[in-house]
Amino acid sequence: MRKDYTLEKRKYVIGGFITLIVIIYVIRLFGLQVGDVKYKESADSNAFLRRVIYPARGLVYDRKDRLVVFNKPAYDVMIIPKDVVEFDTAMLCESLGITRQQLAERWADMKDTHKNPGYSAYTPQKLISHLSQEDYGKLQEKLYLLPGFFIQKRTVREYAYDCASNVLGNIREVSADDIEKDRYYRRGDYTGDLGIEKSYEKALRGQKGVEILMKDAYGRIKGKYENGIHDEAPVSGHNLKLSLDIELQKYGEELMRNKIGAIVAIEPETGEILALVTSPNYEPSLLVGRERGKNYAELVKDPYKPLYDRSIQGAYPPGSTFKPTQGLIFLQEGVVTTSTMYPCYHGYVNGLRVGCHGHASPIALKPALQTSCNAYFCWGFKNMIDRRGTKPGDQFTKWKNYMVEMGYGYKLGVDLPSESRGFIPNTDFYSKSFRGANWTANSIISVAIGQGEVLATPLQIANLGATIANRGWFRTPHVVKEIADSAIDSKYNVKHQPHIKRQYYEDVAEGMRMAVLGGTCRLANIPGLDVCGKTGTAQNPHGRDHSAFMGFAPYNNPKIAIAVYVENAGFGATFGVPIGSLMIEKYLKGEIDPSRKYIEERMLNSNTIIGSGVKKH
Amino acid sequence: MVSKNTDAGVSVFKAIDWVTIVIYLVLVSFGAVSIYAASYDFDNASIFDFNESSGKQVVWIGLSIVIGFMIMLTDYRIYKTYAYPIYIVVLFVLLVTIFIAPNINGSHSWLKLGPVSLQPAEFGKFATSLALAKLFDSYNFTLNAKISNYFRALIIIFLPIILILLQSETGSALVYLSFIFVLYREGMSGLVLFSVLCAVTFFVVAVKFAEPLVLGIPAGEFTVFLLIMLTFALMLLFYCRDIIIARNVIYGFAGSGVIVAALELCGVQVNGYAYFISILLLGAAYTAIAMFRHRITKFLITIGFAITSVLFLFSVNYVFNNVLQPHQQMRIKVALGIEENLRGAGYNVNQSKIAIGSGGVTGKGFLNGTQTKLKYVPEQHTDFIFCTIGEEEGFIGSTLVLALFLGLILRLIHIAERQRTAFERVYAYCVVSILIFHLGINVGMVIGLCPVIGIPLPFFSYGGSSLWGFTILLFILLRLDAARKERMD
Prior knowledge:
The structure holds 2 protein chains of 2 kinds.
Chain A: H1 5-8, H2 10-35, H3 38-47, E1 48-53, E2 60-61, E3 67-79, H4 89-96, H5 100-111, E4 125-131, H6 133-142, E5 149-159, H7 165-168, E6 170-173, H8 176-181, E7 190-193, H9 195-199, H10 201-205, E8 209-215, E9 221-224, E10 240-242, H11 246-255, E11 261-267, E12 272-279, H12 292-301, H13 310-313, H14 323-333, E13 347-349, E14 353-355, H15 365-371, H16 374-385, H17 392-405, H18 427-433, H19 458-469, E15 474-475, E16 480-483, E17 495-496, H20 502-518, E18 532-538, E19 546-553, E20 560-566, H21 576-589, H22 597-605
Parallel strand pairs in A: 2-10
Antiparallel strand pairs in A: 1-8, 2-3, 3-4, 3-5, 6-7, 8-9, 10-16, 11-12, 11-20, 13-14, 15-17, 18-19, 19-20
Helix pairs in contact in A: 4-6, 11-21, 14-16, 14-20, 15-20
Chain B: H1 8-15, H2 18-38, H3 53-73, H4 77-81, H5 83-100, E1 111-113, E2 116-118, H6 120-136, H7 147-166, H8 170-175, H9 180-185, H10 190-208, E3 213-214, E4 217-218, H11 219-239, H12 243-265, H13 272-290, H14 296-323, H15 326-335, H16 345-357, H17 370-373, H18 385-417, H19 422-446, H20 464-488
Antiparallel strand pairs in B: 1-2, 3-4
């Protein structure tokens, strides 16, 4: 048969056709494999389960190396919804110890994008949190029947002492806000809430690790990817050593039971806080585990506001605990000398009247501190502000600057969240409140005795005690003494020194010593401890006067400075002094002398909440 | 060669086309390795095991080589002599299969013979090729001599198609449509091929671009109308070779387009259907009047082409929605990117693209593919075997495989054209057509360019029937080609 050569050319069409197809496919392959990285990512999200390994959170010790906060294991049941196949609900419920209905609710909550905005069928979702060790064991055996389920091990906090919840804080699951602020967090992580758990979060949390597991198309785990060479081990958090003496803290909380208020004890030399008591408070273990949400809501609703840390957040009229500051300013400004005497006719009478109690008149600075004479400080204040040849506004600014130097009016900078700044008015404040009218010392005279506009936190009051104890300087109070492997913030080592001579501090300290020996603080006269102190009885709009005490001990080479503030408990001498003196004695001597046991009894058993006139909010 | 008749065996192995043999061996070995990789399990990393698919495939490959060897030892003349009997026997087996095959996923295409399962459709390919070759080798047979020759060829092609469709193996049945290349090579008008190309293009464009509306009609249909106008004008120009008529028609189309655009700008709504149909009718009428001076056949074909195109366009939606089954519609939509359907029809293709795409340039390395190992790609050792290559060997490996196939096909075209008789040549083109179809559709579906049609990748996909079918197909060709040299000597 003759060959048809025109038709033979058609081989080029056929050959060309398949060549074209292959070229198109090679271009497509190039696009898929070289041009587009999204397939690589999809492949990874298909095949890899990035299981987070949570590091152990740092432990917390007190200043005497007693373990305060530690970790215990807890287990979260996680699922990847798309991998979950039909399973035996009854078996799961039995292993988890929950009812079928609870499971259904939990399941619905997990899928509800309002409650769980990060929901995705493709990523691990938390179904049940905080499984106990026992339930975990039961579930572990059944896990092979439950494709798409896995268990995430983590730790929760456990507390050795049932106290100091305000200092310790707690941990909670991160919010969307936290994730927004710090990319370290992923949904379901924990972060510190309140206390040092919050302020030292970065030191405590450590570094998460990750384990890359392979899962097949049915969600079954098929071992570690490349034998785990891409895994990252978690790094444990740093341990913290608190400056608190946890036994003293506990004793303080016992003394404050059934009272509203705060105790702050500071080691003057270092600024380390020895006890930071707020009352009422709550058991730290309430905010751990599955019941956290419910308990937290109850604490928020509690009319006595246990979540409110009165020791650093409460801004109170400092009352007579304020008087030493006034004495210091008068001496430094040359308004008085230690021998200057002012009259007291049962009070300051000069166009208006500020009451006082019976004592000799006229009176000099030290006895005035000893007896807490209102008139002396009003006169002093008047002579300073209304000084001839000066304007009250300028003089008041000077006064305010001294107060700020002494740590009032601004946050001291304690290493805890939500510290309050108290309040020290400035000249502008009064110019505004008197609407530009001329004002004089008499217009604002109550400031001189720690009433009126001035407000201070118990921490600021204790800090004054520490400053006087040091005879003129203080270090910023703080609750963490050491962070394992790294130094605490250097700002806690800086000596702050108000522009007041050391000699004047000696004078004030002597006055405070006299108050203990033969004045308002006689109950604090513990043989051998040389306590110095100042009472405070602060009028307030909420009911009975607040009872306050500020002091330090021993007189020479002091080891502890303290502030006690008991709301609506009457005279400073009735609650402030006994509680303060017991704390000092406990700290310095380790126990209460039998001769003073009756005071301790009275304090432990008294209740100032009932009948204090405080209204439930 | 002195003793060519006494020592046929030796002479055959001298005359054999070793290029093809080498490519064949490379492909089947690569295939066995890929199947090992595809069925490898991270948990039970077994050494080679004859109970695993890869082990079995090695057995199939060994048997294939024996089959190939035996074919080489046969007398080449038996294929021509027994072409029709072989065809009829295979047709009979296909018929019987419909009734006795067990139902496997809705299809009745597997025959169980003791421990072995065979898919007769795989053997229909070489039988049909032989029969078609025999037909074209008939005395004084040319396709275009009379119209009944077309019918005879089409009957040979469509009998197995019908039987395989009755087995519900649509994919295997469609393979036989590839014989259109054989008919084309043997004289069928190129217009048919062109029409098929146009039909596919029009179908894709019309189905894919249902939105937005242009001139009140879907953008896809609008585009197809433009394409029809374009082919009409181009056919006048290059097929009818009448520059004047073509020019006038182009001016007419362009002018009407300007008018329509102007009307639209002035806010007058023009209906697309009305416009296109009237302008095409005008064009056809003008051509009909103007063509009287010429040979009218080509003009009639051109006009007929345009009219058929319009009718085809109007039937596309009907066919798509009413003739195709829902799963077929979905597969086409997935391939055209209209729907993703990741949980359903699109799952395979999406996972397959992920597996291939994650391979990168050099691939993840042998046995390191996560997607295929962890069973994300279904059918990964049969129809989707190309994924394993894409994931583990990357762009370089998959391009190499495509290049090997292209080399094989071009080599076979070369072999076809060096035959001196129609029987060998037609048979060779049958092999070429079948390989083109399998390669084009299988790789196309795996990389998401074609709808999913379940047919294997030749020499690669797991399975004895498929491998043996292709081996027999190829080695008969090599035997016939070797005979050419024997006779030359």
